Amino acid sequence: MPRNLDMTALRSFVTVADAGGVTKASGFLNLTQSAVSMQLKRLEENIGVSLLDRTARRLSLTGAGEQMLGYARRMLELNDEVLGRLTSKDYEGELTLGVPHDIVYPAIPQVLQRFNAAYPRMKVQLMSSYTSRLKQMFGRGEIDVILTTENSLDPGGETLRERPLIWVGATEGQVWKQRPLRLAFEHNCIFRKSVQTALDSDGISWEMAVESDSTRTIEASVSADLAIHACIEGTEPPYVERIAHQGALPDLPSVKINMYGADISGDEPTNALTDLVHQAFGSI
Asked: Quick one: which of 233, 175, 236 has its CA closest to 207?
């Protein structure tokens, strides 16, 4: 008799793979960590193979897991398309969502995917830029909803999370031990001043070794162990890790992740989008 794969378990598996772990995935799925773990175990027992390498330092997929991931994505896409096409209301149009470069991952891809499944005829235009530019565009009515990273909250906004800045560098990197300390930041990054102030207060000499308008340039330089960077805890980019400096570097201040544009009454798609943003950033 043919066996059937559990779509809920498949969704848990894909979300864990995308989020990089059960903890973050549980927030995206609105489930407890134990519930997500049970879903993964049920899926592995159903097909009779291990999908996750649980002996590795970081979550990784087995060979069978990599193969299953491709199948699972296709099955979920078709499942969501069927439900979206046949059961959704005929909402059509476009929303623009503005997000700073450094908090696009890991939350925003999940938001876009889930919104598209619920409103397949709606288009979400993602605008990624600096907080200051996003607030200017929002003020001119060019963006429907924006997220910001800032120290305060303006009227009409709400704080989704407040998290500390952390030092990040290359995996097993050593450049953080050098003096002057080599830093890598975008020209318009609002974290630069806070980082420099903290270093000056602790009497640590530093130099801006890498400057760019490109987030990718900064990430590549840091992952190559040419300099270190600071980001919001929980939003570390790939190929870098939190520096275990044991007090050799100063603690950094906290930053608010704010949202503006969630007060549009009667607009179901916009309300749905902001609800998904709430859920996603609640897991960071």
From this structure: 175
Q: Would you write out the chain's pLDDT as a tens digit for each of its 284 residues?
A: 678 899 999 999 999 988 888 888 888 888 889 999 999 999 999 999 999 988 767 788 999 999 999 999 999 888 887 877 776 566 778 999 999 988 998 889 989 988 988 888 889 999 999 999 999 999 999 999 999 999 999 998 999 999 999 999 999 999 999 999 999 999 989 899 999 999 999 999 999 999 999 989 999 999 999 999 999 998 888 889 999 999 999 999 999 999 998 665 558 889 899 999 988 887 66
* Domain boundaries, position 143: 93-160+256-281
Query: What is this structure's pTM?
Result: 0.69
How does DSSP assign 41-81, residue by residue? HHHHHHHTS--EETTSSS-EE-HHHHHHHHHHHHHHHHHHH
* Domain CATH code at residue 105: 3.40.190.10
Helix (H) or strand (E) holding 38: helix 33-47
